[in-house]
Amino acid sequence: MPDIFRFNKEMEQYIHTLPVEMQQKIRQSNAKIGCVEDLRQMVEQVQKSDEP
Known about the structure:
mainly alpha; single chain; 0% strand; 52 residues
């Protein structure tokens, strides 16, 4: 699970713009998230997996 407390300031700002449900999915994932671009890619993946 990503450690939200290790996110840099830019990453924290970005994740807080997301819906709470998306934040939870990201936090519960096993993805390695090291930068804002990783977060954006994760959001895209979650959105695609949520599509019918």
